[in-house]
Amino acid sequence: MKRRSVLITGATGAVGSELLRRLAQRPVSVNALVRRGDDRQAEITSILSGVPLAADLAVVAGDICAGPAMGLVPEAVASLTRHTTHIVHCGGSTSFSLPLGEARRVNVEGTRNVLEFARSCPLLESAAFFSTVYVSGRRSGTFAESDEGDGGFGFVNTYEQSKAEMEALVRAAMTELPILLLRLSTVVGDSRTGAVRGFNAVHQAIRLLYNGLAPMIPGDPGERVDIVSSDFVADAALHLIDNHPAGGVFHLATGAEASTLDDLIGSTVDSLLQFRPAWRKRSIERPLLVDLDTYELFVRSVEETGNDVLRSATRSIRTFAYQLAHPKLFETRKTFAALGGSGITPRPPLDFYPRVVKYCLESNWGMQQC
Predict the structure, then answer these.
(1) Can you name the CATH fold of 5-184?
(2) How far apart are the first and last CA of the chain?
(3) Fewest CB atoms within 10 A around its CB: which of 22, 135, 211, 254?
(4) What DSSP letter does each residue of 177-205 carry, written as one string?
(5) What is the pTM of this model?
(6) Hey, CA dihedral for 126, 130, 136, 141, is it positive or negative?
(7) pLDDT in tens, 68-82
């Protein structure tokens, strides 16, 4: 049996780092593609601190945006195409506020280059591409693993749109390549420790609430907000890669067990009170949950006040909060069936979410070591 050789992009990200730690403990070859010029070797070393290494690990300098060769030197291209059996593509931008052209350059054109590279690998057994359940855009209701895109309703931000366009490329390539398309829910941190590697919109919302800069949030109290832990996503992704190497589309989400918006905000407030008792003295009100029209009126009034702090906070919320006005249930039937018997299931969000809030506080949202 030939030795597996895995090429992973985005290995320093929130999900990629979890995957790298698990891959590094296997008797495989792992090539971690990092951007040329970045000092990522030290970051890779930090990610793998304490990990019992069983893999042959190499850090390869390149750039997924630099054409089908991904910025690799010719010798590296020749070696990787000859030996690669698995591609794990986590690289890309998760920013909600990039101009659409820039988001496309990274998420669409970068993926196009990875697909072209995959086509040149004669031993390829599986290529896993990571996307988001929010390619659903402004749709409401159930979004199935078989569904595609926004259904004509549009997108909340450029991240969603660029990922939907990326998916179109990946789906078109499924007829010729052994592809897994893994759509992730919002990844908030490790379910056991609360540790966060990549701070995102949820963590930003916690911070704004903590600072009293989120007086209103659009959404219905009873709507579901789907969040998952980074360890669940990594374990589930590797199980699917191992057992369903070209199995189509899977949702790595909580699905029907997702918490309500009201409960999630309540857990945030309770956690802030528990882990930062002095916060109680500031008497910050719990955010009001309002309909989209009311929230739009609030946004316009903030823009007119000239309060730069509140204006900046409101603008940062708008890049993701509008998604709350389009409630969804992400179907996970196919995924949970494929994970059956593995023991890999998403933990109830409110069981681990307080640990994430605690980590945000203790690390000052990543500004200091915990």
Answers:
(1) Rossmann fold (3.40.50)
(2) 43
(3) 211
(4) S-EEEEEE-EEEE-TTT---SS--HHHHH
(5) 0.95
(6) positive
(7) 999 999 999 999 999
